[in-house]
Amino acid sequence: MDLGISNRRAIVTGGGSGIGYETARQFLEEGVRVMICGRSEAKLNMARDALANATGGEIHAVHADMSKEADVARLVDAATAMLGGVDILVNNAGTMYSGRFAALTDESLKLQLDTKLFGFMRAIRLVYPLMKAQRWGRIVNMIGGAGKEPDPYMFGSGMTNSALLNLTKSLSTEFGEDNVLVNAVCPGWVDTNLWRINAQGLQQELAADGSRVCGRLLLLSPLWGGVGGGGRASWRSCAPRHDPPPRPSPTKGEGVAAEHENA
């Protein structure tokens, strides 16, 4: 597949694993020159080396926390120095908070907003002038379904993600005249460590409420046994007697705060 982006220069935040890692891999296979960042330096460097070996493409890594303004500035400066500029930004790093309103604290919500909402904004604020000057840019915000479909168990994530959808729509209008296109991706459930942590807490919450059927939940393997090798998903009952013994997870009323696996 030729996406017409060969030799473009991309930043992928949270590129150490999960969706960010796969995004970086796809870019490299398309001939894009890539910069990834993340908070775990060891994992980030392993990802960089694995991607370079697998694709033969040009990839760099910068240890950066998107909740820290100085780190974001250092990331963009490094991309400018090593790649010669920035054409594509994929905002992917962030946190997920799962839990009902009673368990949501100001501190946990502030952390999520600072890392994801403000983290995305910090990166956009720095790359947009570069993209505007060259009259070409693509910004992709990796958000999540909780912003479109409110869920009492995903209260913190829902507020953060709905704000990001608003931001994305607004900037797509404002930046479009400069040929800087801004879009959101709200992925479905992806079998990553982050989602498994969330699913464990959700399973216990539903079981504690006596929920018998949760057709709205797409249950993933191997934790749930719902996706086969062909990538097909199945719907299952959440009745406790049908589920495997849960791994340690929070009790009812407690929230689960997890970093993006690829943060």
What is shown here, in short?
The chain has 263 residues and is an alpha/beta fold.
CATH topology of the largest domain: Rossmann fold
What is the number of independent domains?
A: 2
Helix content: 40-55%
Low-confidence stretches: 210-254, 256-263
Count of DSSP H/I helices: 6
Strand order of the largest sheet: 3-2-1-4-6-7
Distance between the termini: 28 Å
Specify the structural class: alpha/beta
Oligomer type = single chain
What is the annotated CATH architecture of the largest domain? 3-Layer(aba) Sandwich
Q: What percentage of the residues does DSSP assign to strands (E)? A: 15-25%
- Count of extended strands: 10
Query: SSE string, helix = H, strand = E?
Result: EHEHEHEEHEHEHEEE
CATH superfamily of the largest domain: NAD(P)-binding Rossmann-like Domain
Mean pLDDT: 79
Can you put this structure into words, describing what you see?
This protein is an alpha/beta fold. The protein contains 6 helices and 10 strands. The protein has helices spanning 18-29, 41-55, 69-83, 106-134, 155-176, 193-208; strands at residues 9-13, 33-38, 59-63, 88-91, 95-98, 137-142, 180-185, 213-219, 234-237, 256-259. The strands form 3 sheets. A 6-stranded parallel β-sheet has the order 3-2-1-4-6-7, with helices on both faces. Strands 5-10 form a two-stranded antiparallel ribbon. The radius of gyration is 19 Å and the shape is globular. Residues 210-254 and 256-263 have low confidence and may be disordered.
